[in-house]
Design brief:
This protein has seven helices and seven strands, in the order E-H-E-H-H-E-H-E-E-E-H-E-H-H. By secondary structure, the protein is an alpha/beta fold. It has a five-stranded parallel sheet with strand order 2-1-3-6-7, sandwiched between helices. Strands 4-5 form a two-stranded antiparallel ribbon.
């Protein structure tokens, strides 16, 4: 079984989402013998934003990295994503990654009946860190990520949320503890397959 671990926070050691993704991956690794973990840090090694040159594959090195990024996503059974809320949405580095994995003909296609996701069968766990507490209409993060992954054919998207972390040190501590208590465990069929 393969797990893809992605961090996108720019806060380094002070990142709530990095702490949460590390805990999720550690718990999954201890539960599943032989779990293969691939790691990407989108802050330290950001992917270039999608441009006309990218689509034309004008830069062979960029095209090769885009293919590697897409294949890494396709090969994963579980994707753990650290997605802090920046300005009511996600970091631009995470959006650049999404642009590299949402590829027509590979992870989705258009049919006469509308779009069809081709990347189903995966489980996505999003570690969300938020300075405040959000819901409609200020939460464009969760609805966007759910829509993107559903468009790719992935129905099993779970959120581990730490909200209000900027209110006070105690709020931060309590929010992280609550988020860690809500971390989903591997499902029984996944445990048997390991």
């Amino acid at each position: 079984m393969k797990l893809l671990h992605i961090d996108s926070s720019a806060l380094g050691q002070n990142s709530v989402t990095r702490e949460l993704t590390a805990t999720i991956v550690a718990q999954w690794s201890s539960s599943l013998d032989g779990l293969q973990v691939d790691y990407r840090d989108l802050d330290r090694e950001p992917l270039p934003h999608l441009t006309g040159q990218s689509l034309a594959k004008a830069d062979p090195a960029e095209a090769a990295e885009a293919e590697r990024t897409l294949q890494q996503f396709l090969d994963a059974d579980v994707v753990v994503i650290g997605a802090p809320m920046y300005n009511f949405s996600i970091p631009s580095t995470l959006k650049a990654w999404i642009d590299r994995v949402a590829v027509a003909g590979r992870t989705f296609r258009y049919t006469e009946n509308g779009p069809q996701g081709l990347a189903g069968g995966k489980r996505v766990i999003v570690a969300s860190g938020r300075g405040s507490v959000h819901g409609a209409p200020t939460d464009f993060q969760e609805s966007y990520l759910r829509q993107v992954f559903a468009f790719l054919g992935i129905d099993e998207v779970e959120f581990v949320r730490a909200e209000g972390v900027a209110y006070s040190p105690q709020h931060r501590t309590d929010a992280i503890a609550a988020a860690k208590a809500s971390i989903p465990r591997p499902a029984a069929p996944l445990l048997q397959a390991a």
